[in-house]
Amino acid sequence: MMAGFGHSTRRRPRTRGRTGSRSGPDRATLGIIGVICAVAGFFVLHILLGPIAIVCGWLAMGRRWDGGHRLPALVAVVLGAIDTILALMWVAGAAGPGF
């Protein structure tokens, strides 16, 4: 049996769903990490965990706003933004003239 001359015995070395790189966390994991960072950010390290939650949620959404069923990613972005804004207001209030 000849396998040469442009005819290989193996037609598709990879299936369609596994063509990308599989290193690093997937989108569902990033969404969950973002939600955890956002909720924890309300209690400790507000100014650090808020932006981390926003970035994780944004990456979990695929850097797009077009629908989809990525609820944890959207929750992470919204709670991270609220957490960041509250932290910035807290820092601005602490640096005010009455302190």
Describe the structure.
- The protein is mainly alpha-helical.
- It is 55% helix and 0% strand.
- The chain has 3 helices and no strands.
- Helix 1 runs parallel beside helix 3.
- The model has no long low-confidence stretch (mean pLDDT 79).
Provide tags for this entry:
55% helix; 99 residues; mainly alpha; 3 helices
**How far apart lie the N and C ends?**
86 Å
Helix content: 40-55%
Largest sheet: none
Tally of individual helices: 3
Short description:
This protein has 99 residues and is an all-alpha fold. Helix content is 55%, strand content 0%. It has helices at residues 27-41, 46-60, 71-94.
List the helices and strands and how they pair.
Blueprint: H1 27-41, H2 46-60, H3 71-94
Helix pairs in contact: 1-2, 1-3, 2-3
